[in-house]
Design a protein that fits this description.
The protein is mostly helical and about 45 residues long. It has one domain. It has three helices and no strands.
């Protein structure tokens, strides 16, 4: 149960992170952030 809660919490946090990245194009252009996003989406 704790694992499921943690996963859904992480999921929500990632969703918010993606919304933030849409609002800030310069963050999107950041290579490190881009690599992180690719890694997270490829889980």
């Amino acid at each position: 149960m704790k694992l499921q809660a943690a996963q859904s919490e992480l999921s929500g946090a990632l969703s918010r992170l993606m919304v933030v990245s849409e609002r800030y194009p310069d963050l999107k252009a950041n290579k490190g952030f881009s690599d992180l996003r690719i890694q997270l989406e490829g889980k």
